[in-house]
Amino acid sequence: MSQDTFVGAIDQGTTGTRFMVFDHAGEVVANAYEKHEQIYPEPGWVEHDANEIWRNTKHVINTALDEAGLSSDQLEAIGITNQRETTVVWDAETGKPIHNALVWQDRRTTDRVEEIQAEDKVEWIREKTGLECDAYFSATKAEWILDNADPIKLSRSRPEDVRDRAESGELMMGTIDSWLIYKLTGNHITDVTNASRTMLYNIHDNEWDDELLEEFNVPAAMLPEVRPSSDDEFYGTTSDVGFLDADIPVAGALGDQQAALFGQTCFDEGDAKNTYGTGSFMLMNTGEEAVASEHGLLTTIGFQRSGEPVQYALEGAIFITGAAIEWLEDMTLIENAAETEELARSVDSTDDVYVVPAFTGLGAPHWDGRARGTIVGMTRGTRREHVVRATLESIAYQTRDVAEAMEADSGIDMGALRVDGGAVKNNFLCQLQADIIDTDIVRPVVDETTALGSAYAAGLAVGYWETLDELRDNWQVDREFEVDPDADYESNYGRWKEAVARAEDWARDGGD
């Protein structure tokens, strides 16, 4: 393998887009990032401009290469990882979105979900998809866009023509990976992990489910082709659309949390990781068995390599963790995320203050779309330090909620938990997490494992890496946080549960 070639990874997240370039040792040689606008048309609604995301993607690719002094022909392959469930519908003729992308956090279809729940179809959906019926997933988002698209954005179309055009394949639907693959290669493709997050894909039959498509009135003609996460046949090349001055295979894609699972080299049954991003997502590899959850977790596809069986995972999806730190900034309680560690250490406790950051409802294991953010226990003596510490503790408590559910479903006592994402740079949070879930926390040297996982998937597809053992050898520990034997958070955790109960079912009777 040439010392002068690399693999690139597009990491398209909820708040911004990053492009990273990795060498054969899995080390970062180039990195660029750009934020995009968060659009909030109404309370509980969250949108992104898919065109802005594409513009930013091109910009960060060019910036990263330029700043590192690399040429595009030094890239052996490009992998993609993406915010999952976020849904785009675009015109096949013009290549333009017909509506802003509906973000995974968006709650506008909560009423539709409650209709399905009232029709007693929740278990039917779970058996096919492994998912909880929730506005989080793509199915109701695609349905909403088709029902509400602005006809001005549809070439040659009247409002009543929208579904006709979708039925004829003149409209395309996809998650953000599909949008970027389309813009990079001209092909309409997704991978199994992203397909498994739409609530339209049967994870046992590994195909789009006709009954679910009928339920949500989403035409099959507008759906992407589903391919392995690491695809020896490639999704296409950049030369097909004239982007970059090289013929680079786009050969790997995984939803962000599955990419982190892959990047953390959790290739074996029982391996687990937790990613702390906008939300937090704990995944445990369950091998070739799709383990049904009885404790509010999701059964999902972990990854698939070409010619090999699908690997499944149990997942606990927490909607708001890192976004709670951003909220502290928005409220001017902190100037930047790094400040939280010093402020949290400056007090011995939260003084019985609990923050439940249910800004877009509660995910696993509660699944309450009408929960809302709550602060309880404040007195006149409450200072910002207490609120900041309580916010960090909320991240750890939510993770414990999921960890307990995961151990109950899997029957496996969790060993050391591998962690990644921006928030794990906070040593106070990592130690707090270890103490609250009573499990050692292991932070790798390369904590941008989401991008690394998609690079690994693409690199394996083109032979840049040949075996999983090569990837295991790349993984190195930066720091391990051992459980403090003197720490005792049991009573605090009980109070946390009480605080959650006060946040649940808040946005009802027009509360949104």
Automatic annotation (TrEMBL):
UniProt binding sites for sn-glycerol 3-phosphate: T14, R84, E85, Y136, D256
Gene3D superfamilies hit by this protein: 3.30.420.40
Reactions that this protein is recorded to catalyse: glycerol + ATP = sn-glycerol 3-phosphate + ADP + H(+)
Binding-site residues, glycerol: R84, E85, Y136, D256, Q257
Family from the record: Belongs to the FGGY kinase family.
Start and end residues of each Carbohydrate kinase FGGY N-terminal domain: 8-263
Alphabetical keyword list: ATP-binding, Glycerol metabolism, Kinase, Nucleotide-binding, Transferase
Organism: Salinigranum rubrum
Any one of the GO CC terms: cytosol
Residues engaged in binding ADP: T14, R18, T278, G322, G422, N426
Function: Key enzyme in the regulation of glycerol uptake and metabolism. Catalyzes the phosphorylation of glycerol to yield sn-glycerol 3-phosphate.
Protein name: Glycerol kinase
InterPro entries, per the entry: ATPase_NBD, Carb_kinase_FGGY, Carb_kinase_FGGY_CS, FGGY_C, FGGY_N, Glycerol_kin
List of residues binding ATP: T14, T15, T278, G322, G422
UniProt domain Carbohydrate kinase FGGY C-terminal: residue ranges: 273-461
